[in-house]
Fold each of these.
Amino acid sequence: MHSKTLKQLDSDLRQGQYSSVELAGYYLDRIDRHGALNAFISVDAEFTLNQARKADQMLKSGESQALTGIPIAHKDIFCTQGMLTTCGSKILHNFVPPYDATLIERCKTRGLVNLGKTNMDEFAMGSSNESSYYGPVKNPWDKHRVPGGSSGGSAAAVAARLAAAATGTDTGGSIRQPAALCNLTGLKPTYGRVSRYGMVAFASSLDQAGVLTQTAEDAALLLNVIAGFDPKDSTSVDEPVADYTSDLCNDLGGVRIGLPRQYFDDGLSAGVAQATREALRELEKLGAELVDIELPNSELCVPCYYVIAPSEASSNLSRFDGVRYGYRSKHYENLADMYMRSRAEGFGDEVKRRIMIGTYALSAGYYDAYYLKAQKLRRLITRDFELAFEQCDVIMGPTTPTPAFELGAMTSDPISMYLNDIYTISVNLAGLPGLSVPAGFVKGLPTGLQIIGPYFSESRILNIGHRLQMETDWHQRIPGEFE
Amino acid sequence: MALDKQTVFKIARLARIYVDEVDVDRYASELSTILEFVEQMDKVDTDNVAPLSHPQDRVLRLREDKVTEKDQRDVFQAAAPATENGLYLVPKVID
């Protein structure tokens, strides 16, 4: 049962082969048996089964829509009414939100069932899931390696088929990078496509919610549920929502694929380069055309991001003060000391580093040299993409420079950790949609091909992912222990 | 830029994060490494470039100045570390 996609489960549920309660129970049992992966922070069987019972009623009464009754996992960054929401942090260790995020509400209205909350880097700051207060997640393909991050728990859960799909968020690669390292399809939609309401804020001009699934078709089905305008999010974009499944099978004849020279340079490992080339050859066979392009400011995306994201984080995370919710230190002398100690004890090292970098970049006398400079560079990076899209329809390259690295390999060197996101960060700076799809294996470890499209071209990039998956079987492979 | 101890304490105060004397050198070195890394941005001339704050260069939507939320004070305060009579409790500020 667990090797089935959302599409297959949906059809089985409709035909009455099993109920939503049976399906939820089956996955809850798998989550329990594979607890050693540490993919989940919160699981509440009664909470899940209650939702499944409601879904079964919807299925029986004919009120069901696509995906009603299907259990999926949610990244622990989305507020869930009545279920703990920690964002991977000690400072929110006891936070039970009094409301649902819009994404959660949309899933609930459709009758999707919440299987539990997945582990993640603290406040989504990380590329390995090692900054979680709740411990690192293990990669189901090799338990000595990281699953990627920050949506590492979501990726491990779907890779081990503890859930048929999961939600995630992506500020600099946090959906696409773990999808690549765990052999999944990961979609980061256009900035503003999916509501950020009730999603704990990291860097508000970059954050976007999306999904980690087994196939591009499943990603389209889930995007149909979560995409759309939300008046509660001031950055939500009021653009028409397509049926993202309708273009999946379109012909790829004449599609121009731009290959940025900068994505295939010295930083790329030989194994991943070869896997990427092979995946591209499959697309050529389907009639796509490869075009060499330039993204001249690629090298500066990571430095630019590490000013903008921490600056926005330092402002967003000022709300954690030990007064209204979350952790409060036991020992303090006065109000200012209470703030400082609650934050020092409640936040982990990486979060504190980024808040301090951001505070410095925004402080009097340094604002122009750091924050303003980064925003100007952000315009140049965005313009690079605009110019590139005059020569091609989509841009492709590897999602990550290497396959999954070993746990602990980079924790003492923040910069080399940051450079993991070298191919994904620019997409967030420009606000474009990006998809990572499985592209084969290097020494038994999965790799990902990234497909970047112009604004609101989700249908097109999912179409390309789907056509590739009709010709290849990399995405169907499951790590041995979890088959 | 290499940060000295005093600057680290100043940033920590602005960020409302307590930094212990024993950790300050580590912070100074880690933060300096990151700042040196991001200063690669200086390689590019951006003199005549306008800053970009929204990826699609859009202006954020404003809503009408109207109360739309219900009163849920008790529900929200249930998550607070300390409250009394509907008020959040903090250490005494004024004698």
Amino acid sequence: MLTVGIKYCGGCMATYDRVAACAEIRGRCPDVRWEYAKEGVCYDELLLIQGCVRRCASCGNLIARHGTVTVCGLQDVPRAAKAILQMAARSGRPDETEPPPQGENK
Amino acid sequence: MGLMTSAQYIESIRAMKRNVYFMGKKIENTVDHPVLRPSMNCIIETYEMALMPEYEDLMTAESHLIHEKVNRFNHIDMEKEDLMKKIQMQRLMGQRTGMCFQRCVTMDGANALFCTTYEVDQKYGTHYHENFVNWFKRIQKEDLYVCAGITDPKGDRSKGPLEQADPDLFLHVVERRPDGVVVNGAKLHLTSCVNAHEIFIMPTMSLKPGCEDYAICAAIPMDDPGITLIIDHNSCDLRKLYSGEMDLGNAKYGGIEAVCVFDHVFVPNERIFLNGETEFAGILVDRFATYHRNSYGGCKPGTGDVLIGACSLLSDYIGTGKAAHIKEKLIEMTHLNETLWACGVASSAAGHQMPAGNWMIDPMLANICKLNVTRFPYEICHLAEEIAGGLLVTAPSQADFENPVTGEYLRKFLQGANGVPAEQKVRALRLIETMTRGAGAVGYLTESMHGAGSPAAQKINITRYADLSTKQGYAKRLAKLP
């Protein structure tokens, strides 16, 4: 099962309800294991919930095999959910042996 | 030990036995006191938010001292990014509480102490930095809240410490022992001291040789039997005792300050961070002031966000939201508020690294920031009162809304536009009232004026950092002057 680490920005100038957006994405991706991202743990994917275009969530020490999905507003929710669903569908296939470079943004 | 939950924090304060007085009575239980509890709720919020994933990025940081996650209010700024995250956190807290949330002095004082004790040790071969680091590691590990005692009573303001009729008008060392010192005196305006586990004391001003006993900086547990806290009686505070929740405007959060008396309090050597080195007294307090003046560029914009939001909401409730003059006022309020934020951001962005390794706020821009903070909230409040109208100060109480006779009249005659109920309109008004002239105004206005130094203090520093001779050089070059 795909494991996704969730990282929020600090929310000082959030232009939308970040918690609701994250809940929406999680609701659209039921067959995924979700955790709040911790340093030292390798996730399949990272979901960055950025409150605004400044994108200042600190994620340099977080590790993801297949890259990062970033949300900066509610308009990004469908795209983010789709990207995670596609990765979940591909995960476990025999040809998925080489992950793309860490930090690749979708 | 890690981050405390709010429940753990509350019980840790409840377990402390302190000498606390309010309105002439000794208070045994400050945790559940209706006037004092709102202040504690601000501190509780800092503990709760540190454990919430959606705020963790701002509310916590990795400590370079204990290599664990700590509350950012207990963090030494070892990365330049920390200076920005500091004020982002403060803006967030201002938005959440709508007032001074009282925990900033810990990080501002700790950062000033970290770099200054390092330099004192470099010059004099003392061990203050080691003392401070060892003490602060425990503060971080146990996630304690430390308040600050800076301002001395000062007595005759035209005279220095040695010339006062009563030497205790500036806190000082009265006895020196092999294992520590005894201090006597008082500190004023202690923010949220009843909610703190410890206090650090430092001189309030530069000191000359001869004033060695006054050049004392140390950390003291808040439940030392020699400490007495006399809580302030400030604007509308007693409304919390007799008014309804609606009448308070911001019922959950509040602030308190206190006179803190140190009656022959013993401080062991390991808790001393400066002891007699007068040349560093002014440096230490100046650095604390620099960090703290930057903090106002975060907290006051956050509080201002709430006030602007309340005014915008009220104008919608009463049908003036589309009026040009209301929009103009909201724009001006936003302009002033964001200018404060811009100053805070600038003073963080222009920071530099200290020899000790931590990052320091730019002092000129921090003073510019704070000088603006002494003015702009007053203008923002002026505009808020214009928007609010006279009902801001003439609204009946919650009790009158609940009375079956008067309630019916009030719901009919105070109703808003488009079916907005009267109570909703009055709630918005009460929030504006507390922030502009009530309990909230203590933090938003007078504390903006005097906290971290009064306007005169900022002007002195602006003069210091203005570097007029360099600017004269620019003018001479262009005007071809000698």
